[in-house]
Each structure stands twice: as C-alpha cells, then as structure tokens.
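re: ur question from the group chat, yeah i did fold both. here u go
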Amino acid sequence: MSITSNEELLGMQQISNAVAETLKQMRARATPGMTAKELDDFGGAILNSLGAKSAPKLTYDFPGWTCISINNEIAHGIPTDDKVLKEGDLINIDVSAELNGFWADNGGSFILGEDLNDLQPLVDASKQILRKAINQIKGGVKIADIGKLIETEARKSGYKVIKNLAGHGVGRSLHEEPHDILNCYDRFNNTRFRKNSVVAIETFIATASTYADQEEDGWTLVGNKGGYVAQHEHTIIVTDGKPVILTSVNNIWE
C-alpha cells in the first residue's frame, strides 16, 4: 500500500507496534525447556490483548499464532508441543498480524542462551545486512539493486542467501506488490521502490543452502543443502530519504 493520509499512517503505526512488541516480548520470554507451542501461545495472547489478529491464521489457516523455526528450519516452522527449546538453539520468530484493516510483518533470529554452535556471527551478519539494505532504500531505487547489495554483503561475510524467499509489500493485506524483494540480484526486475509505499524487508542469510524446500508437513521450510539460516525483518515506509522503520520497537538490532 501507499500511505496517503494521517489515518493510514496511524493505522500502520498501530499494527506495526503490535507485531513488534509481540516479537520483542516473545524473544525475552524464550527459555530452555519451554516448548514452541508455549512460546507461541504467549505471543498469541499478546496479539489478542492488543486487538490484533494473527496473519498466518487469518490468511492461511496456519497452525500457530506465529511462525517459530528452530535450528535447520528456515521459516514457517510450526510451533508444536514436541519442539522443546534448548540452550544454544538458533531460533527464528516471525510475527505478522492485522488490526483495523492494516497488516504488518516482522521477524528475527537469535541464539537461545550460550552460543554452543558458533552461530552468533551468522545472526550478526543478518542484522547488519538488513540495516545496510534498509538504509539504501528510498523512492526510485531499483529493487534488484537492494537484492544485489544483500547478496554481495552476505558473500563478503562468508555466507550465502536463500534465493527463493523474499520481502514484499504489505499494508492492506499480508502480501502485496512488490512480491519480489529478493536477497539476490535479478537482472530482469526493473521495478523501483515507490515513495510512501509500505514494504517488509527481510534477510535470509545462510551457511550452506541457497534455496528453501518445503517439508512434508506442508509448511516448514528447510535449506536445500542443510546448514543454518538467520532471518531479520522490518516493515518500513519508503521515503525520499531515510525510510521510516515502523517495527523499530522490536529491538532486533539490539
């Protein structure tokens, strides 16, 4: 969507704050021994208290309030009772929701407790690359150039990117145009970011894989060559200068 009124800006600020606050509190709540379902129910209760509706449930009938992916899972992980969080796990939480007709999306990966598998550098790279990418986005910038930046920065850090997952437009629904804000360069994509548009920018930085494959459960995505993936995501408003980061209170860059 494009922001055309103060009412729309307020609506996007409210839902963005809701998903960002939920993500922040879920990350703080996660502890070894907790199940993914317990963490998800905690997040669902926060969304409900804020009047927001889970976007995965609303849009896709997803079996969870949020997506919780652990270790080798890239995205769309189902928060079940048999997933028990452990010290050193790489955990990704993705929270998206709807409130009063407005939608927002955010996510982040983190290490639970001690970094037993030496994955903090991967998480840090994902954060830093997202920050660099967002800081380069303004009206008129080619979407493909942001993909090239993400891919180049990942390679400089010794990592790869997942090429078939992408950021996207958001606002009046969960996924809107543009649907193809990739983590890699697409020379055929001449689309440019538009001033006042709302987009969700996300990184998928990988140790080994370059494509995401769907598991038999019909939801969970894993890497085609194994390894680990860190994801970070903000919903932003594109401007003529520095973007407005609507989900900034999630503190994923802390």
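okk and heres the other one u asked abt
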Amino acid sequence: MRVSGGRLSLNDRQQIAAGLAEGLSYSDIARNLQRPVSTITREISRNGGPSGYRAHQAHQATQRRARRRTTAPARPPSTPADTAHGRDPHAVLAFAERFTDLLAQTGLPPMMAKVLVCLYTTDSGGLTSAGLVQRLRVSPASISKAVGYLEEQQLIRRERHPRQRSEHYVIDGDVWYRAMIAAAQANGVIAEAAQQGADILGADTPAGTRLHDMGQFLRHVGEDLAQAAEHWRQIFSPSPASGPDDLERPADPA
C-alpha cells in the first residue's frame, strides 16, 4: 500500500470522523486514507479524542495552529531518540515513526508502540517517566498507562537507581526472551482450557474434536516456542564478562 504524505485536508478529516462513527479502528482509518497510523492517532488525540472529534473544528484548529507557528520563534523538532554520534535527527525521527507504525500494525496499541520505540532508539535503553513525557510530548497519564501495559507484556522493566528517587523504565537483553516465554505460557493455558472443553463436549464429537486439535496445536507450538527462545537466548546473550561488541553471532546462512 502506498502511504500518502502532506497535510490532512478537510475531506480527509471528514473521512476520519465518518470512520470513528462507524467504529473503525485507527489502523482501518489510516489504511482507507493511505496515511500512517501515527498521523491518524495524533490527529484524533489532539482534536477531542475518538468521542469528541469533529472534522470542521479539527480543520479550523489546525489552521489556527499553523498561523501561530508562522509568528512563533522556531524550536527544535521533537524526536523520540538520541541524536548523538552524528546522527541525522530527521532520519532518526522518520525511522522511529515507521517502526512505531509497524508495531501498531501488529496489534500493539499506538502509545505503547511509541514508548517501546522511544526506549529502543535511546542509547541508554532506559528513561524516566519525565524523560518519556519530554521526548514524546504526551501527558504523564499516557506514559503511565503505556509503561504499565508494556510491563504486563514483559517488554520493559522498571528499576530504581540507589541515589535517585525516580524510576527508570528499561529494555534489557532478555526482553524478547521473556516476552516469548510469556506467550508460550499463555498458549499453554489456552491449550489446557481447550482440552477441558473437548473432554466436556466429547472427544468423538465434531466440537470436541475441534477443541482437542486446537489444544494440541497450541500446546506443541508453545513448547517449541519456549525451546527456541531458550536456544537463541544462549547464543545471543553476552557472557557477564563480555560487552555487546564481544558477542559472537552465528553466521548467516549462505
């Protein structure tokens, strides 16, 4: 799908309003308009949210903001990533937006995707809540909700420095290992419930057979996922005495 650029027109905003009225997701609206999901998310959030969005009001508000920007002193663009080491801030920002859209398309809520990408593209791999608010220019409540969700999914962890009162939200080397193990455990729970349903409905009935097959599939997939996660964790995790540059990676297949 070709993703269009440029500013949203009044017609675009009317389509957004119509999509919200129909109960479409942000991803569906973005797909219909051939726009990034992040564009639709920002447009709706800054103009009343999904329940209060009005096309004409949003268009007028955007025009007023544009007029104010032409008279206001310029300030540095917001970027959710470090721009040290001679990085091009515009390239960094463009990558972060693309990566955020990609994660959102896989089902990760847009704000959670923003926070995760912000942490991944920060050299330290960790930021305080205030740091995330400053970089992403969103409310503390939005950050609090996002980090809570990401913690539940085992994608980030929080830590407190001994001499600092604020907590840091951190991505470490085991983040995807923990996420895969959590997914494998979830598959196991569903597989067990499916097997119980098969026993109740009768193993020889169509419904029972269907549930039995589902349970077997998820159980084996979960076991394979856990084994693969442990295998690749051992290969890609650095030893305590080595740093990232010392990590020996397996050769890519020819």
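fwiw on the second one: Confidence is low (pLDDT under 50) at residues 72-79, 239-254. The CA atoms of residues 173 and 237 lie 7 Å apart. idk if thats what u expected
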